[in-house]
Structures are given as C-alpha cells and as structure tokens.
Amino acid sequence: MLNITFPDGRNKKYEIGITGFDIAKDISTSLSKKAVAVKVDGQQKDLIDPIIVDSSVSIITIDDSEGLEIMRHTLTAQVLAKAIKNIYPESKLAIGPTIDNGFYYDVLLKKPMSTEDFPRVEKEMRKIINEGHLINKTLKNKKEAIDLFVELDEPYKIEIINESSQENNFQIYQQGKTSFYDLCRGPHLPNLKLIGEFKLTKLSGAYWRGDSKNEMLQRIYGTAWRNKKELEEFLFRLEQAEKRDHRKLGKEMDLFHFQDDAPGSVFWHSKGWTIFQELVNYMRKKQEDANYIEISTPTVLDRSLWEKSGHWEKFQDNMYLAKTNDEKTFALKPMNCPGGIQIYNNSIKSYRDLPLRVSEFGKVFRFEPSGALHGLMRVRAFTQDDAHIYCLKEQMESECEEVIKLTLDIYKDFGFENIKIKFSDRPEKRIGDDSTWDFLENTLLNSLKRLGLDYDLNEGDGAFYGPKIEFVLIDALSREWQCGTLQVDLNLPPRLGANYIDNNGEKKHPVMIHRAFFGSLERFIGILIENYSGKLPTWLAPIQIALTTINDNSINYCLELGKKMKNEKIRFKIDSRNEKLNYKIRELSREKIPFIAVIGDKEVQEETVSLRSLGDEKLVSMKVDDFLKKIKKSCRIG
Questions:
Q1: Quick check: 87 and 125 in contact, CB under 8 A?
Q2: Each residue of 174-202: pLDDT tens digit?
Q3: Active site members
Q4: Which of 49, 82, 393, 619 is in the most buried spot, having the most CB atoms within 10 Å?
Q5: Are 498 and 491 within 8 A, CB to CB?
Q6: Which are the contacts of 588, defined by CB distance < 8 A and separation ≥ 6?
C-alpha cells in the first residue's frame, strides 16, 4: 500500500499504481470533473500517470493558475497544432510552449499565414475541441519515437529527440484514436472538453532555436482563458496596452528611436533625454539624502577581471568582446560590480569606514537575441541605477531594511503603491559554501520579517553569488514589472580581494549588498510611459507647459512669459505657428504636454493666461502670478 499525504496534512492508504484521477474521484466526484492534472511531490503529472511510491499529492483543477497554464499548453500542442496540420497538411511543427497569458506555436509553412487566416484556423480549432477527444499518452524509447516522427515527416521533432540525452520514456500524446501525435513534456488535459475560450492574436517570425543560421519559422500567438468573461477582460486590457505601447507613444511624443545601425541601443531625442536626466537627478538626490557617494567606472575592462569575478564563466556568451592588436581580450561591462570593487580596493578600509554606500549610474552591455529585443523594455545597452553597500555582517540586516524602505518610498513617488516582493534562494549552480548561503538567506529574510512585509518564495532563483529580493510593480493595467533588486553577497569580495581591517587589526571580507531601484533606466521609462499612457507627472514631463498664440500680436507677450518660466526652471515651449488654434491644441495634446496656455489679444490686454489641462477641454483664465504658482506647484514630486 502507498501512503499519500494531502496538502492539509491528512494521510490515506492507496494501492500501488493508483492514478491522480482515481484519487480525485475518491475525494469527490465534483473534484474529478474539474481535475486537469496532479502534483506528485511538487512535480506536475498527468492524471493517468501511476503513483508507485509514498508521495505528497495535490489535485490541480481548471480553477488553479497551474490548471489554466496546462489548459493553454494543451490548446497549443493538441488543438492549434492539429488545426494547422488539417488546413496546411505540408506544414512542419516545431514547438508550442505557453507564455504569459497565452501560448504560441512555431511552424514551417510553404506559404506564410496572415492574420486574415485566423478566423479559418479558429473555426478549425473549435471543431477539434467540440469533438472532445480523450488525450492518450504512451511512453516510447528513442528509436520508437524517432521512427514515429519519421513516418509523420516531422523533422523538428526528430531533431529534438536526436539531440536529447534521454534514451527512454519520451512522452507521446495522441488525440483519441486519431492520427495526430505530439511529443511533449506534458502534462495535458485529460480531454479537450475542458478547454475554455481562446483567440489567436498575432504573427511573427522566429528562427528555429533562435539561431539566424536556421530556417525562419512562423510563430502563431494566442491567448486562452477559462470562460468568455475572462477572455473579454483580457482582450480589453490588450487593446489598452496597444494604445499605451511606449514605442508608439515615444514616436508621437518625439522621445527616442531605434535603428539597425545600433540594434538594441536607444537614440535618445532631446525630450526623451530630459526624462532620463530628471530620473537621474531624482535618484541622485534620494541617494545623497541616504548618504551614498557616487562613482564612475570604465566601460571596457580586461578579460582577467571577469575571470576573477566569475562572470566570464557564467555570462561570456552574453558579453561583447574585443581583441586588441596586442592580443589582449577586453569586454564591455555587462554589470558594474567588479569595477566598483576596484575603487573600494584602491585604499585601505577600516571597520570604522563601514557601512560604505557607493552608487553608480553605469551603462552596461549584454547581448540579447534580435528576436528578444522590444523597444525600451529589452535592449542590449542600458543604464543601471546601481549601488553597492560594503558593510559588516552585523550591519547587513539593518542596511537591507533601509534599502527596502527606500525602495518602497521611491516607488510611491511614481504612483506605484501595489508592490509584490519575491525572495529567491540559492540556485543549483553557485559559488560559496552552504554555511555562507545559510547566513545570507536568513539575514535577508529577517529584514523582510522585521518590516512585516509579505513575500513570495522563488526557490533556486538567486544570483550565483547570493540570494536576492525582487520588487515587482503592478501597473495601471494590472501587469507585473520586475524592477528593483536587492542581493547580498559574501562570495564576490574574497574573489576580488575586497577587505577591511577589523578592531583586532585583522583583514576581513565585507558583506557586499548589490542594489538597484529602477533596474534599467531605459526599461523604467518604458514602464512609466505605458503606466501613464504618456501623461507623465508634470515634474517628469519633458515639456511642462506650451504657450500657444492665437495671432502674431501675442508673440512678444509669450516671450515675456517664457522668461519668467525659465527663471522658475519650468520647461516650456512656444507654439506661434500660423495654424488654427484647435489644430495646434490637438497637436500639443498628442505630445502629452500637461498644460496648454492659450494667449490672444484678450490675455495680452488683461495680463492673464487661459489655461487648459491635458484631457480637460475647459479653459481657465488666471493672472500671471497665479498661473506661475499653479505650474510650480504641479511640478513638485509626489
């Protein structure tokens, strides 16, 4: 007999070989109808898989987030793939994973699809779902699996199997008694009747295995939800996200652009660079108030430093390398910490010098596949608001607490009140011994507990040198953005010779705390643009007010107002174009300028302005002094 332990701690005996479906049915008939998979000792399994050893078991239902992902996986691997084969018999199937909120499938087609083909494909998908086939699974050895897909003429599946180190237990899924088979890690729904509502959303190109030397496949994206209401809510959010796309708004607001001469690198226009500099100035003030000093380290560093730090082994494939005429190898820095330690090491430090808080707005370079690049959100060259705190072990907990409090305070200034905190412990591949990791993990966790903050655990997702906390922002569309990080490290200082002299005159290694609030300034700007739909807080807007003339008689008055605003450090522009007023207001509104002041003969004679706020069609007349006070007040942070 088996001893099965349930999530509530109860135990029950079952026959060896019992399945998840049988356990669900034993608990209740209603549970067996909603069950989509089973978790055995933390690992997802198909409901038909036999359980042969004592295990902790939980039933996954369609109502669970894991159940929703399994439904999406089944939809792409069994339904979308089969629909493509039914409509395009000569197509070749590659891979079909789940992604956030949906799925995709990569296929090779003789004639590329267009979005106009989506209704036909969706109709075929619904037909397959309505057939309601059971999903059967068999296990095959390597030769059997290859023979099957040779017969089916699916070269990508054959390549996956050939390159696998696995020799047995390849999972082959079949729809009922049809001729459709797929190779998949699973698990899948027990039958297609459990699939909810779906919609195909877009197409893109994707090289097989992300390698530009391979064939270009067509990637078909879709989304799937439990019911029509969930689908419609998501599609509404998707529509809003498209309207807020920072790439579209960045063009309309004349903030930045990208071009093929520098893939993954931003060409900042004057207005965009103003936003960038305002963020730097804001962060610089916050850090000065928190007693940080600021440094700058070289962009190009010798290979030997990256070998000492351990980054060469871990990140070489993502580094930009250059070999000079004297046969030396250099790298554009992918991160700032090794360079920062060189400044720490440049002079002898006493325990009395610690904690030492050191910040750097360092530009780093990391190679990303071209298909992964996405505007400001995913680039190859970006600036981090980086900082490293060198402290004693007994100072680490309080320093971490201060960083956490400052992080949350900064996010409030940008309107982000809803923050998720994730704690990541030791990864499988790491440097340092277990006792060091025990100390770092326990101390970092204590800082969260002492502040009374809730957190989610990301097992095994820490940095290779230490555990970390991640701060995830929730934006206006309820999307999650991981931005800030806090990492603790007792491994890098000894590797790079960072020491201090303790009160007994002995050399010791400091704890090194790695910290970023924005993460990447480029990405944070992209997040802000989308969160505010381009309508940035007035203090951050590149142009805070536009003065627009009704006729040429008011130009000199506008110039005088401009002098006063310049003295008050208000960012403004004067629009004196010979265009209709409504046209100019419409154009200025597209630039998301917070305020527009309309100036005509009446305003000149009365020494007033007629002020209009972005999104409000009402004009309010006010005296110049009141106008300046209002604009100055709106330019305050928070």
A1: no
A2: 998 899 999 998 899 999 999 999 999 99
A3: 337, 366, 384, 386, 388, 468, 514
A4: 82
A5: no
A6: 546, 548, 575, 596
